[in-house]
Amino acid sequence: FQVEHILSSPSREWTGRRGRIDAEMLPAAQISSRVLICGPDGFNATAHKLLLDAGYKDENIHIFQG
Questions:
Q1: Full DSSP string of 9-38
Q2: ∠49-28-36 over CA atoms, to 5°?
Q3: pLDDT digits (tens, 9 = 90+) for 33-60
Q4: Residue 54 lies inside a defined structural domain of this protein
Q5: For a surface tag, which of 9, 35, 37, 44 has the fewest beta carbons within 10 Å of its beta carbon?
Q6: Which domain holds residue 63?
């Protein structure tokens, strides 16, 4: 299980990854990869498309709404 937080507008103290998610940030799709997405609607839609374009299977992507 792996979690990675990437913030587009972090505080100065933030030491994790920064910026908007793009294709270069995604790891290579694995057969058993499951991805959980949680964020604002625009983020969720962008992340979902990037994952599909990178070869992740739609049935292995879950988007939390609300």
A1: S--TT--SEES---GGGSPPP-TT--EEEE
A2: 50
A3: 899 999 899 999 999 999 999 999 999 9
A4: yes
A5: 9
A6: 30-66
pTM, 2 dp? 0.78
* Any domain includes 64: yes
Structural domains of the chain, count:
1
Structural tokens at position 52:
């599909």
| Closest to 42 in 3D by CA, of 8, 13, 3, 5 | 8
Asked if residue 11 belongs to a domain, the reply is no
Residue 13 lies in a domain: no
No. of H helices and E strands in the chain? 1, 4
